[in-house]
Every structure is written in C-alpha cells, then in structure tokens.
Amino acid sequence: MRRLPAPPAARDAAAAASLRLAQAAARNLARLRRAPALHPDGLVCSAVLTVPGSPHRAWGVPLLDDPGTYEVTARWSRALGLPQALPDGFGLALRVEDAGGPGRPWDLLLTTSGGGRLLRHVPLPRRRPLAGPYGTLTAYRVGPRTCWLAAVPRDPHHAVRGGLPALRRHLLRTDVVLDLCVAARGQPWRPVGVLVLTPRLPWTGTSPGYDPYRHTAPGLRPSARLGPLRQAAYAGSRAGRHRAA
User: Is residue 90 part of a domain?
Assistant: First the structure.
C-alpha cells in the first residue's frame, strides 16, 4: 500500500519539535561546559583571498566573476570540542571583508568533509585538520545555479595532527594554501579563488561572530534548509552560557 505524505500540520509540528530539541540540547551542553555548545575553542588568524575572476562572467556573481583581493578573518575550530587526541569535525569559518561591496562582509562556514561527489557535503571527523577538504553542509544559490562550496588544501599536510595547538605551530612555520572551489550537483570542483594563511599574519583574538545568513554577497546565498536549525542551536547555546554565568 502506498504511504500517503504527512499533512502540513504534522510536518510543521515535527519541524517545531526538532527545533525545540536542538535548542534544549545546545542549552544543556553549553551550561555544562561553560562555553559554546559547538565549536567551543578556536584559533583565529588572518588570511588573504585572491579571486582571479571569470573572463566570461560564467557565475553571475560579482565576487567570483570580478578579479579581487580580500582580507579575511579565519577561525579554525573543533566542532564537538573533544580531546585533542580524538578525531573531531574541524570547522573553518571565513569573514571575507568587503566581498559584497565596501563595508559588506561575506561569511562562509565550512566543515571537514569528503571530496567525492557523494560525500562532498557530508561532515567527516578527522585527526589531521589539513588532510582533506572543508565543505559547506548546505547548498548555495550561486547566480542561477545550486552549488556547494569547499576549501581544499593545495598540499595536504598529513603531519599536522593533534588538533588546534599543532595547527597553530604549523601556521607559524609555513604558509597554508587552500583553493576555494565551487561545484554544481554531480559536477567536479572548479577553483574560483586562492586562500592563503601566512605565518606573518596569525593572531589569536575574539571571533567576529560569523553568520552566513546575515552576511551574504550579491548572487551568493546559502539555502534556508539548515537556517532555522542553526539559529535554534545558537539561541540555546547563548542561553546555556548565560545560565552558567
């Protein structure tokens, strides 16, 4: 017998229950650890994004079609905040200054993921933060297309293991270069820019508070699919930290 789809009221109730569950879980975890529920510890450093541009304006997005160089505030973090010796999902958050025009930054959140077409938007825990790509967990509207974005280490540094302290020591010794790539569903990655983190620039400081739904660039916007869930988790995390304080 063919199963009938759930009525809209049931779907709305299930969605609301999921949001409440995510908010409660984040609140309790933040209260216990007295820190953000997810990505509690981070390494903030500076970087430069260089975009060569598209001669035929292939993307329909000024940031990707026009040549430019942008200052970036990057934050590396471990998603669950597990002990450094254990695998964890590493996060890479980027604040690209003036990407949408003067005074209009663009925020991009990336997580360690697979590199193939089936696993490119699936989060994968790692012990080595620079051993593979970082991808978006949600699709992006890139001009007229639905795509995914990734930052792929140009020369994977398999020796960097042990979490954020090892990554910081590595950054102080050598450049880390990642290719910013875009791919439509079922298509290979296409490089659109180069992100360089250099030993002359790392610094530790306060995270700028990344929000990919608030800080967007013209023609480049994330899908709303994970937006409500992310906002619920952030709200719960803030409430848990306030209660712990």
Answer: yes
What's the half-sphere exposure (Cβ side, CA atoms, 13 Å) at 73? Answer: 16
pLDDT average, residue stretch 187-194? 94
Please tell me the distance from the alpha carbon of residue 242 to that of residue 43, in angstroms, as a whole number. Answer: 23
Is 215 a member of any domain?
A: yes
- The CA-based angle 232-238-243, given to 5 degrees, is 125
* 121/215 Cα distance (integer angstroms): 21
Name the burial class of residue 105, with classes exposed (0-12), middle (13-18) and buried (19+) by CB atoms within 10 angstroms of its CB.
buried
pLDDT tens digits for range 172-184? 888 899 999 999 8
Q: Please state the φ and ψ torsions of residue 181, each to the nearest 5 degrees.
A: -125, 155
Give pTM, 2 decimals: 0.79
- For the chain, give percent helix, strand, coil, nearest 5: 25, 30, 45
CATH (domain of 236): 2.40.180.10
Are β-strands 145-153 and 106-112 bridged in parallel, bridged antiparallel, or unpaired?
Answer: unpaired
Residue at 6 is within a domain: no
Phi/psi of residue 9, each to 5°?
-65, -40
Structural domain including 228 reads 34-244
Query: Cα 178–180–186 angle (5° rounding)?
Result: 125
What's the number of domains the chain is made of? 1
Pairwise CA distance, residues 218 & 40, whole Å: 30
- Look at residue 25 and tell me if it is in a domain: no
